[in-house]
Amino acid sequence: MKFTDGYWRKRGGLTVLHPAHLQDSATAPDSLTVWAATRPIHHRGDTLNSALITVTCTAPAPDVIRVTVSHFQGERSRTPNFTINEASGDVSVDRLSLTSGALTVRFNDGDNWGLDFLADGRRLTGSGWKGMGVVSGPDGDYVHEQLDLGVGHVVYGLGERFGPLIKNGQTVDIWNEDGGTSSEQAYKNVPFYLTNGGYGVLVDHPGKVSFEVASEMVTRTQFSVAGQSLSYLVVYGPTPADIIRKYTALTGRPALPPAWSFGLWLTTSFTTDYDEETVNKFVGGMADRDLPLSVFHFDCFWMREFNWCDFEWDPRVFPDPPGMLKRLADRGLRTCLWINPYIAQRSPLFAEGAANGYLVKRANGDVFQWDLWQAGMALVDFTNPAAREWYAGKLRALADMGVDAFKSDFGERVPTDVVWHDGSDPERMHNYYTQLYNEVVFEVLRSARGEGEAVLFARSATVGGQQFPVHWGGDNSSTFESMAESLRGGLSLMSSGFGFWSHDIGGFEGMPDPAVFKRWVAFGLLSSHSRLHGSSSYRVPWLFDEESVDVLRHFTHLKYRLMPYIYGAAREAHLTGLPVMRPMPVAFPGDPAATYLDRQYMLGADLLVAPVFSAGGEVSYYVPEGRWTRYVPSTGNADVVEGPRWVREIHGFDSAPLLVRPGAVVPVGARRDRPDYDYRDGVTLRLFEPAEGRTAVVVPGPAGADTVFTVARSGSEIVVGRMGDALPWQVQLGDQVTTLTADQDSCTLTLG
Predict the structure, then answer these.
(1) Rounded mean pLDDT for each run of 10 residues along the chain, 752 residues in total
(2) 158 and 492 in contact (C-beta within 8 Å)?
């Protein structure tokens, strides 16, 4: 939201008050409060007919400082609120500053108003002249803050946004919408941004937050909320990875998805005709072509039209759901069902929910209804504990029937002219609704399947939503442009604390050209989660051409063999918050060339992926410093690429740039027919440009029975050792492969 008319003037009809004079301060052991007058105070008369702005600073965690700006403090408390996991740390306070760990906020005294954030002897950012303000106007009251951006400083994050990865120059409103992947709207809005200047900022407001990122004021990031107060947290890194770790410690780390969920998902698609015969035809066709599926997903029409949601299988097309689910399970498949939080009027659950007060109401007591999406639909009121249990009970019955996962779709179309059971503020609940929705669904699966076995396929999210993986990118189109915008959205989301992400391979809307489909397959199978899904057309590969079958087989096998490495990256995401798919600026913060990269990413710590966005295979990507090795040789392209430099290549449909960082040890599994197996049994340790010193790699085992491998290089000698259960294994260095038996715990290799 913009409040100014150019640099000097305010917009018409607005009154804006800015702190001008630090009048007084008060300290406590863990807080600092300052009172700022909005004009210079030279004598007692200046204190009359003047506003006073209160700024309170606290330390919710080490290296984190919360700043709360207030004008009138008589506002009633409003809910919901984000859950912030506070942790005690080293805090020191004096009259003008507060320090939390390595981060300090310091105020200027007297008429030279301003506050600075400092760490490790340098200034990170701050709020200076007319940076902080309280606004009143015909549309209501607002509070804004402006934190300055240094030369070369850029902003990432703010949720899953499909425009440029760098947010500088953009206006971003944090407001969940069902807007597809080609607009400024987003399904997953997160009022947290990450910078390359050593800090990140979370605006602690679950409703609408308006960001002007180097737009209204080109040297500042402004954020504003309606009302009389604004609270934000500054998180010190110093690196982007450190900021993400500390931010997810505050707002929640992602659960670890089950290993089977990393396999290939196939769906019925959306409006296509399907029944059990169709499902069996697709499942059998995949098996006949050696295309190993992990999950089969039933989209909306598993329920009868106009009845979404009643959670009842349509008996016209699925007469024996328990038997069908068992038959699919006997083939080694997991199953997923589409759901949403809306109850259509024709659903038998509508009358039940209305009678018991489980549906969101208007101010006059009527159930809120409209005809968007489903005729006469209402919303489940998840602020009502009884409604939560009612909804969860419907899902538990499906889980008991044999369903393994739910695609928790929608959750963005939440009105503000309603009344919530617990009295929540409608504006604050609009974005927060998805958090309650996905939490209910996730907890059903966790309870039914056990810890580590719950997984969603969710579309909407806000702060904390990363705790309930996986999220996918929403309704894209079947074009290369939409493939690129989908990647930008994912990288933006993963800059916002989300560890796992997926997208509709081939695009959702339209029938992709075979070239688009094949290029997207490579991208999809080199993502954390991989799903074939469409709107009005199926996504089985033989409908495109026979080469599509070969391409899907190749990349599915590749991912399954990479599962020891990918699952290790998943564990890291679970434990630290670092995403499986890492934006290049997060992975290489010291490389200025990585700052603007949004067409490539790191898969885990060591694999560089550059999807191909052209039918002819032309691709351009950046290789950071060092000797990077192509994971799979590519015809016409060098096996080793020396960085830093830009590379231009041409790739066939069975190839995409997949390079390994120098010094990496990549554990490769022995199976390519499924994603969930004992990764230690027959594992191959692939060594790439081994570095001097010692490297340790953990290969996950069942029930936490991990095996630790060490690689120690001294000169031309490399010693590889194992600590863990006795299983056969291999070591590969270039073309040299050493096979070890179960009772051999080490081997020695010689370079050259």
Answers:
(1) 92 94 95 95 89 97 98 95 95 97 96 95 95 95 98 98 98 97 97 98 98 97 98 98 98 98 98 96 98 98 97 97 98 98 98 98 98 97 98 98 98 97 98 98 97 97 98 98 98 98 98 98 98 98 98 98 98 98 97 97 98 98 98 93 97 98 97 97 96 94 90 96 94 95 95 84
(2) yes
Please provide residue 582's backbone torsions phi and psi, each rounded to the nearest 5 degrees.
Answer: -110, 125
Q: Is the dihedral of CA 483, 485, 489, 491 positive or negative?
A: positive
- The DSSP code for 263 is S
Rounded Cα–Cα distance for residues 363 and 251 (Å): 32
Dist CA 9 CA 259 (whole Å): 57
Q: Mark residue 15 as left, alpha or beta (left: phi above 0; alpha: psi -120 to 50; beta: remaining).
A: beta
Residues 160, 299, 381, 475: which is the catalytic one? Answer: 475
Burial class from Cβ neighbours inside 10 Å (0-12, 13-18, 19+) for residue 588 reads buried
Instruction: Provide the angle, in degrees to the nearest 10, between the axes of the packed helices 514-525 and 546-561.
Output: 10
Three-state SS string over 295-338 comes to EEEECHHHCCCCCCCCCCCCCCCCCCHHHHHHHHHHCCCEEEEE
Predicted confidence at residue 332, as pLDDT, reads 97
**What is the DSSP secondary structure assignment for residue 120, as one 8-state letter?**
T
DSSP 722: E
Out of 145, 409, 606, 676, which one is annotated catalytic? 409
Dist. CA 267–CA 38, nearest whole Å? 60
Asked if 187 and 176 count as a contact pair (C-beta separation under 8 A), the reply is yes
Element (H, E) at 194: strand 189-195
CA-CA distance, 642 to 628, in Å (whole number)?
A: 6
Q: What is the pLDDT of residue 692?
A: 94
What are the respective helix, strand and coil percentages of the chain, to the nearest 5? Answer: 20, 35, 45
Active site residue 314: no
Taking the C-alpha atoms of residue 318 and residue 300, their distance in angstroms, rounded to an integer, is: 13
Rounded (10°) angle between helices 321-330 and 276-288: 0
CA distances from 445 to 265, 450, 503 (A): 18, 7, 22
Report the C-alpha gap between 339 and 442 in whole angstroms: 12
Looking at residue 405, what is its pLDDT? 98
Say whether 409 is catalytic: yes
Strands 684-687 and 729-733: parallel
Annotated catalytic residue: which of 63, 148, 310, 412? 412
Burial class (CB in 10 A: 0-12, 13-18, 19+), 203: buried
Beta strands in 77-163 (DSSP E): 91-93, 97-100, 103-107, 115-119, 122-127, 133-137, 140-148, 155-159
Convert the pLDDT of each residue in 668-679 to its tens digit. 999 999 999 999
In eight-state DSSP terms, residue 541 is G
